[in-house]
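Ticket 4471: requesting a sanity check on a complex prediction with flavin-adenine dinucleotide. Repro inputs:
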Amino acid sequence: MDFNDTPEEAAFRAECRSWLEANAELRQPGDPGADALGERTTPETVKEAQAWQKKKAEAGWTCITWPKELGGRGGTTMQNVIWNQEEAKFRTPPNIFGIGLGMCGPTILTHGTTEQKERWIPKMIAGEEIWCQLFSEPSAGSDLAGLRSTAVKDGDDWVVNGQKIWTTGAHFCDWGILVVRTDPTVAKHSGLTFFVVDMHAPGVEVRPITQINRGQGFNEVFFSDVRIPDSQRISEVGNGWAVSITTLMNERSSIGGSGGAGGMRDLFRLAEEVEIDGRPAIEDRSVRYKLADFYIRAQGVKLTGNRTLSALSQGKTPGPEASLGKLVGAVMGQDMAAFAMELQGAASATFDESYTPQEGDWQGRYLGIPGLRIAGGTDEVLRNIIAERVLGLPPEARADKGLAFKDIPTGPPNA
Ligand SMILES: Cc1cc2nc3c(=O)[nH]c(=O)nc-3n(C[C@H](O)[C@H](O)[C@H](O)COP(=O)(O)OP(=O)(O)OC[C@H]3O[C@@H](n4cnc5c(N)ncnc54)[C@H](O)[C@@H]3O)c2cc1C
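Returned structure tokens:
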């Protein structure tokens, strides 16, 4: 492992920094945490985010690794990492483009035709069109291949019916990537096809879900006889699983191990602000012990992440170990939020910004962060990946292996 920038990387970092200094302000202690789940988005913040994305695109500071001819920078993965590290130090609008640029774009770049790339990628880069991911359904999350929404061919179109859920950002998106069942007579992974859907098309109904922390990040999306032209199909009919895997691999690496490390500085500040027995909590031995424990865990997450960075810098592809960062980071983030609530004592029970330290930011995190342990692979699913693909343990039994989808029982046994 080598954590130092090469001379070329250091020069690139300086270039990023100088553009950012000229165009944005440095983040300050007390700035709200990053809106990682897009829960605080309003029509105004969407406009601000689009303006920031346009500015970056015009100056060549977004989609660093994407081809130049489509509007990217044609740079390296390591340059992209460096840009992200530097941009995170500055005040920027909420990142509403994470799903588009982190998952939808890479999937279209890998599996799309030249016409499809030319139609969608440049406007995605410029922030003119915003994207969402329509995968999960009420009965298909971890077991995504068990999804039930269908598409049936009708002339040059496909007619889609069914329901998706937990669709982040669908209420302000223009396009979505969609995986649906086109053949129930074959095994569940083989009967899926991948499309791009116009979120403003007739028959698409988006119903926002209000969360316990008052956020409104995701939605239910209903499809009633929605027509999708065959030109919006990505890859061959029946190849939807392979295309979805490309999206999911990108999802895990873009969520990464940032679960808790970002809140460390805020937690130290909170321990300085609140008191125990008339003295700042940070002077209490048990509080210091806890803070040290979080700091050590955060360093572990950071150094494990650096292994991935080191592999990228040497041109290698990171392996399934990346699941470790997501698993440990999300659990740690939740533990930190719970400790921040304990530190606040009775004030933790109110969500009123005027009574709570740090304007209720920790209350919001405490209620929202369980989502990070689910999105992009639940804890248990990540443990299965680590067990099977990192440790080489035997795979779990799969009772529906080889069965045609239509023959998989849907109810309880003997129902
Ligand atoms: C904040 C957030 C944003 C999201 N955004 C999107 C989005 O934009 N688009 C989208 O399509 N989806 C999105 N999702 C949905 C997400 O992908 C699913 O919630 C996730 O895949 C889990 O599926 P599920 O909720 O159906 O739970 P289930 O898969 O039903 O899991 C229920 C429980 O069973 C456990 N379990 C399941 N299978 C196994 C197994 N094989 N072994 C052991 N335990 C198992 C799980 O760990 C979990 O504890 C989002 C979710 C969250 C929380």
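Notes from triage: The chain has three domains: 7-96, 132-244, 256-377. Leaving this open until the requester confirms.
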